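User: Hello! I'm new to structural biology and keep hearing that structure can be predicted from sequence alone. Could you demonstrate with 3-deoxy-D-manno-octulosonic acid transferase? Please show me the input and the output so I can see what each looks like.

Assistant: Of course. The first part below is the input, the amino acid sequence of 3-deoxy-D-manno-octulosonic acid transferase. The second part is the output, the predicted structure written as tokens.
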Amino acid sequence: MTAASPLLRRKLRKRAVQEPGYAQAVPERFGYYESKPEAGGALLWVHAVSLGESRTAGLLIEALRQRIPGLRILLTHGTATGRAEGQQLLREGDLQAWFPWDTPGAVKRFLAHFKPSLGLLMETEVWPSMVQACAQQGMPLWLVNARLNERSLAGIHKAQVLMGPAYRHLAGVLAQTDMDAERLQSVGAPVQGVTGNIKFDARPNPQQVETGLQLRAAWTAHSGKPVVVLASSREGEEAAWLDAIAASPALHAVQWLVVPRHPQRFEAVAQLVLERGLSLQRRSRWTDLNGHSPGPTPAADIWLGDSMGEMALYYSIAQVALLGASFEALGGQNLIEACACACPVIMGPHTFNFTHAAQDALAQQAALRVADVAEAVQAAVALAHDTPRLHSMQQQAQHFAHAHRGALDAMADALAGQWALMATDHAGDRL
């Protein structure tokens, strides 16, 4: 890790060309920080590496604030989109920084600078040097909303000498499912409970849902076409999707909408569309979401969702969603968000990031599984035009999302209890 530090600097410079956020506060990546916590009082550190984890962390932080008056947060991230999302979660007295590159020196400087009282790593972010340093200093570090798929488990076993101690030295783990708990325990992690997946407790933005439904109704009345979205797509998926629809009746059977997962790829996806001779309408050129928007221009073959933080809008416009990152070996994106908007999901073969949720959605007929993008296109068109089946799956999708709620309260109660125990121990030490 130390030897690779110059490579990290080079990577950050390259990423900053498309995402300027990566040029922000680069010294923090190596453990050099300017913002200091206020003197006195405990600081809860929450690490949310990217956009999805930051949104999930927002739910947990708000629940903990309700249980712990005056709670002060240190929020760290690894990606520019995660950091931008995290800024919306901060209150007076809170701090935000980059997670340090996992070298002993950077980690030591991070802990010495901020002196957090308790640390929470969201979902999967276990780094050997950080865990070791926290254990040596007696700073409890928990892995929460934790998941561990078979692929990652195999990787841990291959690097057992390095990763085994990292999992064993965590102070505690709260797992999403029983299967996650079993895998985590198999590598020595101290699992304290199975609390569920707090992504189920996220509520779609009501204004976006209302506006999306209005736009859907206006569009359907105008064109007679349902809308199908390729949601949170990743590199390679858009090209395969365009190949599947460009030379087939599917192109004009529905209105297609694509929402790339990463904003730096908006232009590349637009170029893919135009290279195939298709017309394009961007979300950024629609009117605003004040209720007076007429929606996208009807003439476009493809609508491009080139905005951040509006997935509830896109899922509410669409009748059916193709799940991004499931058609390449990337593990799938968050299908729960689509289901919460009553948008049934068509998934590819790769959903190992959401194994349990994907299996439950299939069992409850809130989702369909297909072999590849070409089959997904045909399945989406068929479902969008099968009104009775579509309405049934829309109801099942929303029921699936609602039925699994409750993880947030369970997790927040457990962590608030740990915070109270820690505060009691510190009071005893002072006495």
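User: So the tokens describe the shape?

Assistant: Right, they're a compact way of writing down the 3D structure. Reading them back into a model, for example: The chain has 18 helices and 14 strands.
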